[in-house]
Specification:
The chain is α+β, with helices and mostly antiparallel strands and about 150 residues long. It is built from two helices and eight strands. About 25% of the residues lie in helices and about 50% in strands.
Length: about 150
C-alpha cells in the first residue's frame, strides 16, 4: 500500500512540475510580447537605426532614429500623396540610456540651428523574436530596427 501511495505521489509531482514548465514558458512569451521584465543591458545600441512609418489618408510619415554613441539624429520625412512632394526635418541631439531598457532622446537642433523647445522622447527597448524595438512611452508607437526590415 505504501509503495502504491509513493508511486502515486511521485507521478503527481512529476505532472505538476511539467505543468509548471509549460505555464512558465507561456508567461515568458507574454512578457516578451509586452516588453516587460527583459534585461537588455548587454545590448549595444551604438550605430543602431530604428524606423517608424505612419500612413495617413493624405500623407505618409517616415521617422528615422540613428544612434551613434551618445549622439542621436532624428529624421522626419513627410510624403504628400497628392502632389508627390517630400519634405524632411533633421533634428540632432543626444541620447542617454537611463536604465537598462529606457532610452531618453533630446534633440535640440533643427538643421544645425538651436531650437527653443527641444524635441524629447522616452523610449523603452524591447526584443521580440530576436528583433529590437523601441516603444514610445507616451504614444505607444513601435519603432523597429532597420536591419530587421531589410531582412524581410
Amino acid at each position: 500500500m505504501k509503495k502504491i501511495l509513493l508511486l502515486l505521489l511521485a507521478g503527481i509531482s512529476y505532472h505538476a512540475h511539467a505543468q509548471y514548465g509549460t505555464v512558465n514558458a507561456v508567461l515568458e512569451r507574454l512578457e516578451e510580447r509586452h516588453g516587460i521584465n527583459q534585461n537588455l543591458a548587454d545590448v549595444n545600441l551604438d550605430n543602431a537605426k530604428f524606423v517608424l512609418i505612419k500612413d495617413f489618408d493624405g500623407h505618409t510619415e517616415r521617422n528615422f532614429l540613428i544612434l551613434r554613441g551618445k549622439e542621436a539624429t532624428y529624421v522626419e520625412m513627410f510624403d504628400d500623396k497628392q502632389n508627390g512632394q517630400t519634405t524632411s526635418n533633421v533634428f540632432t541631439g543626444d541620447a542617454v540610456r537611463a536604465q537598462h531598457n529606457l532610452l531618453s532622446l533630446r534633440a535640440d537642433k533643427l538643421e544645425g540651428q538651436k531650437i527653443a523647445l527641444p524635441l524629447t522622447k522616452t523610449l523603452m527597448l524591447t526584443r521580440q523574436k530576436k528583433t529590437l524595438y523601441l516603444i514610445d512611452i507616451n504614444t505607444r508607437e513601435r519603432w523597429i530596427e532597420e536591419s530587421a526590415l531589410n531582412k524581410k
